[in-house]
């Protein structure tokens, strides 16, 4: 499974006075099993891009190949695409609607037309995969859970569809530090267990540095730069010019005169120890 | 998709029509609607159409934008047309089985269709060229004489303001929730009536939850800023009639007179 986006353009409200180009000639590729981080200033077009990847928005021009199928061509079944590509929206907990957690998570698999047993199995698996105790939460109303638990249930609702590509739009927005960590851990866990492609939008540079194999930077609908976290976060000036920042630990190491692009705490400790020894 | 609804939408601009006092525009629109019902021949409709066309041209709202607002009512239009053309009794000019078309029927059906189209376009010109807030301000001022008799004109205007303010928000919310459920495989487009109605549950439940959350937040925010109803409230923008408002009003009066005279003459 791989994704190839070529010269993707999207214009909102075409032909109206409010017409706006939200994506301009975006091209990139994602290989099997990668975690991709997308970063960009508010309003840069990240959510717009994500919604193209499972056919919720139609490209104004350009092509999107998923597993060799160009989904921008007419006649491609949207149901098949959504089976392959799962999208978790920003604040997904606002989409919960069922009377119980288990039923809510079952909504996606049910729409896929699976059998009762399969659905039940997937629901159990997904709920435990996102770190919840099935027996404790299955019959509770999703509306009486805590914020973090709601978010986990909402993510489970998409994970239960076993997408080969899992896309998450700011999955950690508005969470406290602990839940934030839990949600990231859970995304990693799902990635490791299923070997899917994971595409992740975040405003937290630290998270991206830690999680991603590949980072894509977007500004005003244009792809600014792309590469490994090492490559992208070595371009501090460029990132600042598009309203982004370096991860705090990278910034810190730059400040104290370590010129390598340090991305994690462990790495930083090693470098600082070296520095002191000198 | 759901954002395509233009009925009741505002089209930003700074034309003469946009600048007119909302009270003048509201009264003119009401008069226009009355005129449409006074008129009963083609010349009259032509006059109304010409006046409306002039207003549209001056307002600089593109015709394509206005026409888009007509799409949702095409069905109603077609339905009234069919009903009139077949139901009105009179001199039969065509019949097939139990269906008869009469001369009077054709006349009434055509007039009714023209009337409806002019009515919708005319009243959407009001909302297209008036900011929702000035619109409700205007309504409040027009209703304010009734406040003396205990009519809650401020409260009604406030309710309308809030409703208008939140229509786009709720549409956006609906769009978002629909997309989110589509991402989970929901299908709103195929299947029979029952299946489609059922498919809406996953949209409606979160939408209601959102609406209540928004309402609660808004109530809290208003209270935090000491909102306590309309008594003794002053306004930031006092409405004052200008020369152009009087001219617009005079033109409207002349238009009304012409329509009445024309209807009497023929
Ligand atoms: N449904 C829409 N209709 C019209 N314009 C839109 C719509 N959705 C987004 N836009 C515009 O497109 C641009 C990109 O929006 P998008 O939501 O993709 O940004 P984003 O990068 O996800 O921002 P954020 O970080 O705030 O979520 C913005 O300028 C926005 O105003
Ligand atoms: Mg976004």
Question: Mean pLDDT of chain B, as a whole number?
Answer: 86
Overall form of chain A = globular
* Series of secondary-structure elements of chain A, N-terminal to C-terminal: EEEHEEHEHHHHEHEHEEHHHH
Average pLDDT over all residues of chain A: 90
Report the count of strand segments of chain B. 2
Number of domain units of chain B: 2
Radius of gyration of chain B: 23 Å
Q: What share of the residues of chain B lie within helices?
A: 55-70%
Count of alpha/pi helices of chain B? 11
Catalogue the ligands.
Answer: adenosine-5'-triphosphate, magnesium ion
Query: What structural category characterises the helix and strand content of chain A?
Result: alpha/beta
Poorly predicted regions of chain B: none
Summarize this entry quickly.
Chain A is α/β, with parallel strands linked by helices and 278 residues long. Chain A is 41% helix and 22% strand. Chain A starts with a strand and ends with a helix.
Report on the structure:
The complex is a heterodimer of chains A (278) and B (266). By secondary structure, chain A is α/β, with parallel strands linked by helices. Chain A is 41% helix and 22% strand. Chain A contains 12 helices and 10 strands. Chain A has a 6-stranded mixed beta sheet, with helices on both faces. In chain A, helix 6 (147-159) packs parallel to helix 7. The N and C termini of chain A lie far apart (47 Å). Chain B has 266 residues and is mainly alpha-helical. Chain B folds into 2 domains: 1-130 and 237-266, no CATH class; 154-233, no CATH class. Helix content of chain B is 68%, strand content 3%. Chain B has 11 helices and 2 strands. Chain B has a two-stranded antiparallel ribbon. In chain B, strand 1 (92-96) and strand 2 form a beta hairpin. In chain B, helix 2 (22-38) packs antiparallel against helix 6, helix 7 runs antiparallel to helix 8 (153-183) and helix 8 (153-183) crosses helix 10 (201-224). Chain B is flat and about 65 Å long. Chain B starts with 15 loop residues before the first helix and ends with a helix. The model of chain B has no long low-confidence stretch (mean pLDDT 86). At the A-B interface, helix 2, strand 6 and helix 3 of A face helix 8 and helix 10 of B. The complex binds adenosine-5'-triphosphate and magnesium ion. Adenosine-5'-triphosphate is lined by residues 12-13, 20, 22, 40, 42-48 of chain A.
């Amino acid at each position: 499974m791989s994704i190839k986006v070529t010269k993707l353009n999207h214009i909102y409200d075409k032909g109206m006075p409010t017409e706006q180009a939200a994506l301009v000639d975006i091209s990139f590729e994602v290989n099997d099993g990668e975690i991709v981080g997308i970063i960009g200033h508010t309003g840069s077009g990240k959510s717009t891009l994500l919604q193209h990847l499972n056919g919720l928005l139609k490209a104004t021009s350009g092509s999107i190949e998923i597993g060799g199928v160009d989904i921008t061509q007419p006649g491609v079944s949207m149901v098949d695409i959504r089976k392959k590509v799962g999208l978790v929206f920003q604040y997904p907990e606002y989409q919960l609607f069922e009377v119980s957690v288990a039923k809510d998570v079952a909504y996606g698999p049910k729409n896929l037309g699976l059998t009762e047993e399969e659905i039940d199995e997937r629901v159990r698996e997904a709920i435990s995969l996102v770190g919840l105790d099935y027996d404790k939460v299955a019959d509770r109303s999703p509306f009486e859970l805590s914020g973090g638990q709601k978010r986990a249930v909402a993510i489970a609702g998409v994970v239960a569809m076993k997408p080969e590509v899992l896309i998450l739009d700011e999955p950690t927005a508005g969470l406290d530090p602990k839940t934030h960590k839990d949600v990231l851990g859970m995304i990693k866990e799902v990635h490791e267990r299923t070997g899917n492609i994971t595409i992740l939008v975040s405003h937290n540079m630290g998270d991206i540095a830690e999680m991603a194999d590949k980072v894509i930077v977007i500004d005003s609908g244009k792809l600014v730069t792309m590469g490994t976290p090492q490559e992208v976060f070595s371009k501090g000036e460029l990132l600042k010019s598009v309203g982004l920042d370096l991860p705090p630990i990278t910034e810190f190491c730059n400040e104290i005169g370590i010129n390598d692009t340090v991305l994690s705490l462990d790495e930083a400790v090693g470098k600082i120890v070296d520095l002191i020894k000198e | 998709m759901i954002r395509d609804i233009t009925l009741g939408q505002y089209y930003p601009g700074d034309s003469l029509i946009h600048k007119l006092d909302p009270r003048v525009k509201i009264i003119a629109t009401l008069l226009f609607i009355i005129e449409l019902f006074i008129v009963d021949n083609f010349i009259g409709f032509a006059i109304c159409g010409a006046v409306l066309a002039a207003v549209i041209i001056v307002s600089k709202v593109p015709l394509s934008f206005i026409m888009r607002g007509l799409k949702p009512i095409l069905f109603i239009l077609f339905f009234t047309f069919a009903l009139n053309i077949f139901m009105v009794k009179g001199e039969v000019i065509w019949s097939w089985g139990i269906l008869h078309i009469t001369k009077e029927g054709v006349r009434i059906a055509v007039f009714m269709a023209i009337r409806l189209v002019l009515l919708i376009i005319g009243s959407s010109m009001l909302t297209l060229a008036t900011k929702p807030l000035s619109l409700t301000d205007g309504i409040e001022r027009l209703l304010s004489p009734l406040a003396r008799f205990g009519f809650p004109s401020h409260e009604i205007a406030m309710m309308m303001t809030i409703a208008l303010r939140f229509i786009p928000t709720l549409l956006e919310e609906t769009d978002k929730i629909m997309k989110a459920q589509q991402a989970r495989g929901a299908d709103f487009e195929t299947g029979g009536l029952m299946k489609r109605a059922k498919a809406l549950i996953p949209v409606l439940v979160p939408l209601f939850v959102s609406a209540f959350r928004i309402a609660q937040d808004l109530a809290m925010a208003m209270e935090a800023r000491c909102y306590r109803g309309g008594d003794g409230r002053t306004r930031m923008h006092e409405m004052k009639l200008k020369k152009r408002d009087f001219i617009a009003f005079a033109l409207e009066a002349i238009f009304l007179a012409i329509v009445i005279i024309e209807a009497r003459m023929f």
